[in-house]
Design goal:
Layout: H1 16-25, E1 50-51, H2 63-66, H3 81-85, E2 95-100, E3 106-109, H4 110-114, E4 119-126, E5 131-141, H5 142-149, E6 157-162, E7 184-188, H6 189-192, E8 198-203, E9 206-207, E10 217-219, E11 232-238, H7 245-249, E12 273-276, E13 287-289, H8 297-300
Parallel strand pairs: 1-4, 2-11, 5-12
Antiparallel strand pairs: 2-3, 4-5, 5-8, 6-7, 6-11, 8-9, 8-10, 12-13
Bound molecules: ligand MTE.
Organism: Sinorhizobium medicae (strain WSM419) (Ensifer medicae)
InterPro entries: MsrP, OxRdtase_Mopterin-bd_dom, OxRdtase_Mopterin-bd_sf, TAT_signal
Catalytic activity: L-methionyl-[protein] + a quinone + H2O = L-methionyl-(S)-S-oxide-[protein] + a quinol; L-methionyl-[protein] + a quinone + H2O = L-methionyl-(R)-S-oxide-[protein] + a quinol
């Protein structure tokens, strides 16, 4: 079915391949398709999205890999655990609270979040574990949401929190707790407002599967994947850098910025190359060079002008 929404970008701004990639995921959503069905992997509903100029023309990671090779410790620490253990998680109904240093603190219901104009954006994603994927996200700029709550002049950072539901998230209820809950992340306000930073509600043209962070998660493509906090229930604007889960767990290994940087190694492994998931050959010839800022330097390097990126890793 053709999209009922006209792409917001002139056709002249995108290459034919890019346009083709985008067209493939244009799925007209009848109003009813946003009424989410029962929880579990089968609940994915079609999402209507327009093309975005912030999109790549690299081969997409197979959807099966993107939805079965995950990090979501609330469902277990194995890559297959999130897909295997998240069927009882209920992503609807959902509310996300925005508070802190804003003029208009408020809650957003899921229907309101899905009503933001959605775009499909094909982003290169780089995990700190030195693997990468190319994902067609569906989402909207975080800046659009922040505008609605009117950040105060004193706001300098944005803090995010994941839901805590041990009854639905087995990784939060077992004897071994790998992390402190809630999972927390943070960005500088200018990073949060950058046009590449999105809140995602879907991938491959459908609503997010539970294992990928349903119903709403952060995507910041120039940073390591752990910054992409999932299943967000709270966003707070703050004056000082907020605590971040992996930074708290291992401050020498995971910095606040976490910008993809092939020149700054993790203390236990190199960050110079990466394995593109789905291409085979985990340790072999298929490794490719990691790009500064994950290939988004042109867009974002100026955010860090004058900063020592070794000290601010
Ligand atoms: N968010 C929460 N709440 N819990 C997590 O364990 N893992 C992070 C990030 N967001 C994580 C999370 C890490 S380490 C990565 S690499 C990405 O999610 C993985 O996202 P994906 O499974 O959609 O590829």
């Amino acid at each position: 079915m053709p999209s009922t929404r006209v792409p917001k970008i002139a056709a002249t701004d995108i290459t034919p391949e890019r346009f083709f990639l985008n067209r493939r995921s244009f799925i007209a959503a009848a109003a009813g398709s946003l009424a989410l069905g029962p929880p579990g992997a089968s609940r994915a509903a079609a999402l209507e999205a327009s093309a975005s100029k912030f999109t790549l023309d690299e081969a997409l990671t197979p959807e099966k890999d993107a939805t079965t090779y995950n990090n979501f410790y609330e469902f277990g620490t194995g890559k297959g655990d999130p897909a295997a253990n998240s069927a009882n998680f209920k992503p609807a109904p959902w509310t996300m609270k925005i508070d802190g240093l804003v003029g208009k603190p408020r809650e957003f219901g899921l229907e309101e979040l899905l009503a933001f104009p959605l775009e499909e954006r094909i982003y290169r994603m780089r995990c700190v574990e030195a693997w990468s994927m190319v994902i067609p996200w569906v989402g909207f700029p975080l800046a659009a949401l922040l505008d609605k709550v009117e950040p105060l002049g004193s706001a300098k950072y944005v803090a995010f929190e994941t839901v805590v539901r041990p009854e639905e998230m087995p990784g939060q209820s077992g004897y071994f707790q790998p992390l402190e809950w809630p999972y927390r992340e943070g960005l500088r306000l200018d990073e949060a407002r950058h046009p590449l930073t999105i809140l995602s509600v879907g991938l491959y043209g459908k609503t997010l599967p539970n294992q990928n962070g349903a119903p709403i998660r952060l995507v910041v493509p120039w940073k390591y994947g752990f910054k992409g906090i999932k299943s967000i229930v709270r966003i707070s604007l703050t004056e000082t850098p907020p605590p971040c889960t992996w930074n708290l767990a291992g401050p020498n290994e995971y910095g606040f910025y976490a910008n993809v940087n092939p020149d700054v190694d993790h203390p236990r492994w190199s960050q110079a190359t990466e394995n593109r998931i789905g291409e085979g050959g985990f340790f072999g010839a298929n490794r490719r060079d990691t790009l500064p800022f994950n290939g988004y330097a042109e867009e974002v390097a100026s955010l860090y002008a004058g900063m020592d990126l070794r000290a601010n890793f």
